């Protein structure tokens, strides 16, 4: 059975196919309105979420299916110390596909080994967030029309930010991508991301602490929030919370066709004046997330012969 636990579970060809499907859904919504009639999606969220959970549920509803699930561990039997393995054994009796978010890295992989139905990782700790990455790739493709020949700035908490880790892994597979990693030294991308993905794929990358210096060369600027929930202490978080704040003034020297992205939620790392800049695409990214999750539900159900 095929699950979606990491971006690397998908080949480049499969990613292209899913992006084409998402674009077709955007252009022909009626064609897909009943494709999942009678099917159920379970959303098991052991960690908070607005976009991922609700977009999954909206996606299944727009495909004609239904959604069930829980939005916090405390409202499930996890609060009675039921294991993830048992929870998945049970829920996979009720649903045709499961989207799961968990604070423990690797928990969706463990869950998938006990599931009767496809499991989608909706974010596991600081590790991976493949459906956000597919959303990000759809946004890049719709804005740039390509995945090659791009200078991609990733800014903020590159240590704990799982969306950044997933996006680097995915974009390493395209040609002539240059990464600019913008973060405080203490929140730099983990060593395994550099050795196993950037170095391994001979990717060009630089690390810097100055957003202003690198701004003119960027095609994409991917902002991220400092991940407060992953710090050991509030004092540590407070040291970095204002490290990078994008405002209109900092965009003066940016390319006219820069694409500004953010997986959201934002705290203060993009000021609201940037929202009106035509280069700000983070709310389009949110909408793309729903269409991408529609495409992923269809794809995984088709792979299992359920559709
Ligand atoms: N981007 C993202 O994962 O947002 P949520 O935490 O609200 O799901």
Please name the defining characteristics of this protein:
307 residues, alpha/beta, four-stranded parallel sheet, 10 helices, 9 strands, globular, binds phosphoric acid mono(formamide)ester
Account of the protein in words:
By secondary structure, the protein is α/β, with parallel strands linked by helices. 36% of the residues lie in helices and 15% in strands. It contains ten helices and nine strands. It has helices spanning 12-27, 51-62, 84-91, 107-112, 130-144, 162-171, 191-199, 211-214, 234-240, 282-303, and strands at 40-45, 66-70, 97-102, 119-124, 150-155, 177-182, 204-208, 220-223, 259-261. The strands form two sheets. It has a five-stranded parallel beta sheet with strand order 7-6-5-8-9, with helices on one face. A four-stranded parallel beta sheet has the order 2-1-3-4. Helix 1 crosses helix 5 (130-144). The protein binds phosphoric acid mono(formamide)ester. Residues 49-52, 123, 132, 263-265 line the site of phosphoric acid mono(formamide)ester. Phosphoric acid mono(formamide)ester (CP) is lined by residues 49-52, 123, 132, 263-265.
